[in-house]
Amino acid sequence: MGALFPSGDKTLDQPEETAILRARDFWTSLVLIVLSLFFLWETTSIPLFGENRAGVSGGDWYNSAALVPFGLFGGLFLLAIGLLVISIRAGGAARAMSSVGLGWDGSEALRFGTIGMTIAAYVIGLVPRVDFIICSGLLITALIYGYRGGHAQRMILTAVVVGVAGLYAFVANLPQSDWKLHDDDWITLILWIALTAFIFVRHPRDRMSRVIPVIALVAPAILVCAMAFGFRQNVPNRGGLFFKTIEYHYYVSLKPLWSQK
């Protein structure tokens, strides 16, 4: 395994390391462009400027549920274009094409293969069926730990963990009528806790081991709460294990405090 997929621990001089990073930026930007265009296209099905689609009126544009997705994925598209331009100017495109076309680079193939598997499991299997905070926490943990330092074993491990969670959610609760079930929430939560515990045990002195759980929990929680309660947008799987409890206490315990004034 080590001979086929280098661990990334070898020391490179600065120009060579920069060239490798720019090649990775090139492929990453292409993936982000495709993803952002796909979600922008999907968002066009939501009424924006007062249209009436499938009996649903968009109302005023500033109240449309499409506003936040257009902003998020539009921003992602612009950032990806910027990353692509920087990569091309720095020679990243030539390096990337050379690696794929002339000499098979096993470490790059592993990196992008596992990233593709992770994102596919998240988008197709987890997001529609699993609590947003739980599945996003697992994704953030996997991406930070798996791709920090370029270790092949970490990439494989984290991709397998997210892949197992996504595959279970997709197979066990394939029809939309089953998306409100919580068995996949629990499976994903257990895998997230197990991966976090593994990181603590393997790297007890690494400061990042203590930071990852905080980022993985706080970031998606803030995002989903801002979308649901601040911007009043639709969020994935409102009946999820965590968000269902948050939404209940928001409307029952918190909102009455200022609504009665």
From TrEMBL:
Coiled-coil features, chain-numbered ranges: none
Membrane spanning residue stretches: 21-41, 61-88, 109-125, 131-148, 155-174, 186-204, 211-231
Top-level taxonomic group: Bacteria
Keywords per UniProt: Membrane, Transmembrane, Transmembrane helix
Entry annotated with the keyword Transmembrane: yes
Keyword Membrane included in the entry's annotation: yes
Protein name from the UniProt record: Tripartite tricarboxylate transporter TctB family protein
